[in-house]
Amino acid sequence: MSSAMTLFSVSRHHGFVPATLCSVLAVALLALRLDWSERASFAFLTWNLFLAWVPYVLALLARVLMLRGHGKGWVLAPLALGWLALFPNAPYLLTDFIHLRQRPVVPLWFDAGLLALFAATGWMLGLLSLEVWKQWLEERRGRTVAWAFVGVTSLLCGYGIYLGRVERWNSWDVLADPWRLFSSISAHLKDPWAFPYLPHLTVFFALVLPVSYVAFEALVLRLRRQRATP
After folding, report:
1. Which residue in 216, 7, 202 sits closest to 130, CA to CA?
2. What is the DSSP track for 141-177?
């Protein structure tokens, strides 16, 4: 099977179509809002959605390598590290609700629905990409290791969201400004309670993300069983 065919098969089995449809709908509603209000409010959502797509695409590429027999750790390591660094960008869209307030022209309910659609799409992209790595680990190391990975990733994701939302770090600062970033991380580790929102945001996402993944996995398994039933 060619790489293109493998990528098509992987995309089809890992939610590419619903993720694309939700993204197109979200961007279309945003375009409607921009035209309606004649203001640039919420235009940043397109960039945040793009960033949510990046870890998903990295996960799909990793899955292609896995299926083509290149699933060794040293081959997947660059993709895995890139995915882990960028993964918080997907559930990060949920925090964009801090921008929700009554604005001129556009009703509040419309903005609430718009933010909810972007947040749900980002969350879905995150779960879809997480599934790729969790499935790979489960096949190689068993369910215990795979679920431990989900837990650790969720904790790191919560911390990453704190870094982005509260301290305004970007994912690429790992390369662009690593020493200052690592200095900030060191201060957080020494005294996390000295930083407002750090424990709360980290723990919140560390709990909510695995719970939502449990529901997501149950739904995926049910759909697969229905397809397999003649």
Report:
1. 216
2. H-HHHHHHHHHHHHHHHHHHHHHHHTS---TTHHHHS
In this predicted model, what pLDDT tens digit does every residue of 177-196 receive, in sequence order? 889 999 999 999 999 999 98
Residue 160 has, within 13 A of its CA and on its CB side, a CA count of 23
Scanning the structure block, which residue is given the tokens 């580790």? Answer: 189
CB 90 within 8 A of CB 55: yes
For the record, the structure tokens of 204 come out as 């919140």
Provide the H-helix boundaries in 42-142. 44-67, 73-86, 108-141
Counts of helices then strands in the chain (DSSP H, E): 9, 0
CB under 8 Å to 38, separation ≥6 — which residues?
Answer: 105
Is residue 175 exposed (0-12), middle (13-18) or buried (19+ Cβ within 10 Å)?
A: exposed
Cα→Cα distances 65→10, 75, 118, Å = 10, 8, 29
Q: Rounded to two decimals, what is the model's pTM?
A: 0.91
At CA 127, angle to CA 122 and CA 129, rounded to 5? 95
CB 84 within 8 A of CB 156: yes
Distance CA 24, CA 62 (A): 24
pLDDT in tens, 91-138: 999 999 999 999 989 999 999 999 999 999 999 999 999 999 999 999
**Distance from C-alpha of 55 to C-alpha of 83, rounded to nearest angstrom:** 5
Whose structure tokens read 């890992």?
14
**What secondary structure letter does DSSP report for 106?**
S
- Residue 98's closest CA among 141, 42, 143? 42
